[in-house]
Every structure is written in structure tokens, then in C-alpha cells.
Amino acid sequence: MKIVLAESLGFCYGVNRAVEATKRLLKEKRDARVIGDIVHNEIVMKKLKDMGLKVYPDLSSIDFSDTAENSVAIIRAHGASPDVEDFLKRRFGYVVDLTCPIVYNVFSLAKDLEKKGYFIVIFGKKDHAEVKALCGRLNDYLIVEPGYDFETIKAFLREKKPKKVALISQTTMNSESFEKLAEKLLKLEGIEVSVNNTICNVTINREKMAIHLAQTCDAVVVVGGKRSSNTGKLAKIVESHGKRAFHVQNPEQLPDLSIYRKVGIISGTSTPKEQILKILDYIKFTYEGEVIRNGGEV
Question: Which candidate in 7, 85, 130, 179 is catalytic?
Fold first, then answer.
């Protein structure tokens, strides 16, 4: 079996920055708390919790009865709405903002466009943390999720009657789907449309790698958390190109791969390299695989 590694694997800059900063706080014995997962990777989150990180699903679930002088609130890589930020600053003496710089740039762009009179259309998932943080900064907006009905969007805009519309995206969405939505919006009559592709370049490059692996391999192993938007997207891209994609977090989740002569390996941007290495080693030793690095290193 030949095992082909994607050119880029592991954490992106924003995720690595957030994880390493959280580890430093925990090593300093800070009482670190966060609303939601730092990253959407179950293995990474278990390690951080084992180090002492306290994770709460929402603001109302935070227990303030045991806060101490060394307590610190963390704003995760996806960002937080201004209301949440203000609340944390009031209740904690120290707040560490680990919002990904690329995500923060999207927040700033959206606010600037709104100030210029644009009605904001967001291509993203309404329950995703990044989208929630973005919406908390805007006065009015429309979220367009995958699988949208464009006639419904047209009807909404006819009723809303905006003169100008600005399209932006959650940073981890599928770039091809974004472009298709942009193309449809640009055809609307009587509305000035500004298209702003705010999808992260790292995720766009991973999409291209997923397509390349699907075109050159018999199957592709996609390594990453089950709740990771960008990891799940890679698996869907592979399958859309007619190849089997196995979205796994550990070797135990892999099926029998003996029927495949060439298997690709790619990861989401919230997947640590040690997680990828475990799966690579398992495939290599189980199937006597030859690793083709293709520029990729683990």
C-alpha cells in the first residue's frame, strides 16, 4: 500500500496559538475557564481538561462560587460576541482573548461594511461559535446556511429592500459553495452587491489538497474531531469526487483498508500532529505501507 500525505497537516496558526496559550496558562497554575471548546477536537480538549481547564457550555452555567485571584477567562479561537466579552471582563479580573486574528479581521470587515450602509449576508452555520460571535457585532444580517433555497433568500431581500448587500463567510466554509452563492447574488437586479471571500486561505488550501488526494488515491483518511466544521468539510469534498472518505479520530475507528492500493491522509486545522502520527503509524505497520510525503510532514 502507498500512503500519501497531504502537503499541509496539523494545526493552523490560529488554533496552535490558542492551544499553546491555554497550555501556558494551565502550566502557570492559573484557574483557566472557557465557554465552549478551545478547538473542536475531542482529544485536544481532553488533554486541556486533564491539565485543569474548566469548560462551560454557556454563560449561565459558569460557577462563580469557586473563583479565585488566579482565575482567568479565555475567549476561544472562534471569538465571542461583545456582550459575552463584556460579561467576562466584569466577572473575571483577567481575560485572555485568543480569537484567531483571521476571524477577528472578518469581524472588523463586517462592522465596517455595515457602517457603510451594506446589509450583511453571512454564508455560514447559525449554530457555529464564529457565526454567533460575528452576529453579536451586527445590527441586522441574514445567515445563509449550506443547502439554502435561493428563492427564499430573494423573497427575504425583496421584503427587506436593501440598496446594498455585502456577502461574507464563516472562515471554514466550502469556497466553491461560497462562489456559487456570490454568483447568484450578483445577478440580482436593483441591488449593489459586494462580495468578500473571507474563507481562510489555509482551509482553502486544504480543500485543494482533499481534491488532489481524491483524484490520485483510492480512499482518503480524514483525521480530526467529529464536531470540527473544516474537518467534516474535507470528508465531504473527497466523497463528492467519488472516493471513500474515512473521518476518524483514532486508529480504532478505521475500517479494513486492505482493499486499497493507495490511501491519502489529510487533517482538519484543529487536528494535532501527534493524532495524525498515530493513525499514520497504524496504517503503515498494519498494511506495510510506503509513505509518500508529497511535501507533507508529521
Answer: 130
Number of structural domains (the chain) is: 3
Residues 6+ apart with CB under 8 A from 273: 9, 10, 11, 298
Among 37, 77, 41, 36, CA closest to 59: 36
* Positive or negative: CA dihedral 163, 169, 173, 179: positive
Q: Nine-digit cell at 213?
A: 488526494
210 CB-side CA count, 13 A: 32
CA distance 16 to 32: 17
* Nearest residue to 88 via CA among 129, 125, 58, 118: 58
Q: State yes or no: 200 annotated in a binding site.
A: yes
pLDDT single digits (tens) 28-56: 999 999 999 999 999 999 999 999 999 99
Whether residues 134 and 208 fall in one domain: no
Q: Which of 99, 125, 150 is the last residue of a domain?
A: 99
For residues 177 and 160, what is the distance between their CA atoms, to the nearest angstrom?
A: 24
- Residue 130 falls in the annotated catalytic set: yes
Find out whether 100 is annotated in a ligand binding site.
yes
Listing from the earlier edge strand, what are the strands of the sheet with 164-169?
Answer: 141-144, 119-123, 164-169, 192-195
Residues making up the chain, counted from first to last: 298
Is 270 annotated as a binding-site member?
yes
- 152-183 pLDDT per residue, tens: 999 999 999 999 999 999 999 999 999 999 99
Neighbours of 125 (CB within 10 A): 17
Residue 112: how many other CB atoms lie within 10 Å: 11
230 is annotated as contributing to ligand binding: yes
Instruction: Tell me whether residue 65 is annotated as binding.
Output: no
The number of C-alpha atoms within 13 Å of 225 and in the hemisphere containing its C-beta is 20
Same domain assignment for residues 6 and 23: no
Q: What is the dihedral of CA 153, 78, 235, 206, to 10 degrees?
A: 100
